[in-house]
Specification:
Number of helices: 9
Strand content: 15-25%
Number of domains: 1
Oligomer: single chain
Order of helices and strands: EHEHHEHEHEHHEEEEHEH
Distance between the termini: 15 Å
CATH topology: TIM Barrel
CATH class: Alpha Beta
InterPro entries: IolE/XylAMocC-like, Xyl_isomerase-like_sf, Xyl_isomerase-like_TIM-brl
Radius of gyration: 18 Å
CATH superfamily: Divalent-metal-dependent TIM barrel enzymes
GO molecular function: isomerase activity
Number of strands: 10
Shape: globular
Largest sheet: 7 strands, parallel
Protein name: Xylose isomerase domain-containing protein
CATH architecture: Alpha-Beta Barrel
Structural class: alpha/beta
Pfam family, one: AP_endonuc_2
Keywords: Isomerase
Helix content: 40-55%
């Protein structure tokens, strides 16, 4: 099966969940990855609502590659706080079951790798292992997104965490945009190193800039100090996704690639143009 395209619904956050999915289908994506917080798929939704949404997605011909939750972030939290995260995560497992979705994003949180301790990894791994055991009851895989300012911000640190979790149903979400920020390799070497641990792929473009007042700009402390980044349209920033797509083809990856574009947008027309641009660029990369 060929790689399929999906759109993360955050860029359509001014639309309802249903309206966002309708636009994604109309533009021509294969899948819809819901932002799992208000106003889209938050944990307070009823199971009946989610089941009805699955029927709507079926009518639209859309799959759900992953539930992009904001759950976890165990490092630095108390036992009570971690238990609460686990309960919220299980709610999304119920949603995943209803949506016929096999991957749920769930992260360790924490400081960046340069500040992380062995205890941080041990703490996060123990709770993620518990989460994985719950996910297994739903036949769901946990996807840990490689993300800056977490203990899983590089391929190496992610694999360390996966080894400590020691569960077969936990893997990595490759995100070249995030890996560009941390100066980690996001091309052929990263895909080869992840191997079977690669369970899902996110793409977005970013650019290092000097002016923090530019639209959408954000600042992050990296290994090189405080840096400023700006979200860009796919293919218009500094993240060269070509080697990644070549590597995915070499590896025989046949899952979804979800576009996570988060450029600033002015109105609903702008949202549509962004979504159309991203799909066109994805299709170009897929050849």
């Amino acid at each position: 099966m060929a790689i399929r395209t999906a759109l993360f619904s955050k860029v359509l956050r001014d639309r309802s969940l249903e309206e966002a999915a309708e636009l994604v289908a109309e533009i021509g994506y294969d899948g819809f990855e819901p932002m799992c917080r208000d106003p889209h798929l938050d944990a307070d939704r009823s199971l009946e609502e989610v089941t009805a949404f699955r029927d709507h997605l079926d009518d639209l011909g859309l799959g759900v590659p992953c539930l992009a939750t904001y759950t976890g972030h165990y490092v630095g939290k108390t036992r009570e706080e971690c238990e609460a995260e686990l309960e919220t995560f299980e709610r999304f497992l119920e949603f995943a079951d209803a949506l016929d979705c096999g991957i749920v994003r769930h992260g360790p949180g924490g400081p960046p790798v340069r500040e992380a301790t062995d205890d941080d990894y041990e703490h996060a791994a123990s709770w993620l292992a518990r989460a994985a055991d719950r996910a297994a009851e739903y036949d769901v895989t946990i996807g840990i997104e490689i993300h800056a300012h977490t203990i899983a911000e590089t391929v190496d640190s992610t694999q360390r965490l996966l080894a400590e979790i020691d569960r077969k149903n936990v893997g990595a979400i490759h995100d070249a945009g995030n890996m560009y920020i941390t100066l980690d390799d996001f091309g052929l070497a990263s895909v080869r190193e992840l191997g079977d641990d690669l369970v899902h792929v996110h793409v977005k473009d970013e650019q290092r800039i000097d002016d923090p007042d530019r639209p959408g700009a954000f600042e992050l402390e990296t290994d090189d100090g405080l840096e400023t980044f700006q979200p860009r349209l796919l293919g218009e920033g500094a993240v060269d996704h070509g080697p990644l797509f070549d590597a995915l083809a070499e590896a025989g990856y046949d899952g979804y690639v979800t576009d996570e574009c988060h450029v600033p947008r002015d109105d609903l027309k702008d949202e549509r143009e962004i979504a159309e641009h991203e799909l066109a660029e994805l299709n170009r990369l897929l050849g």
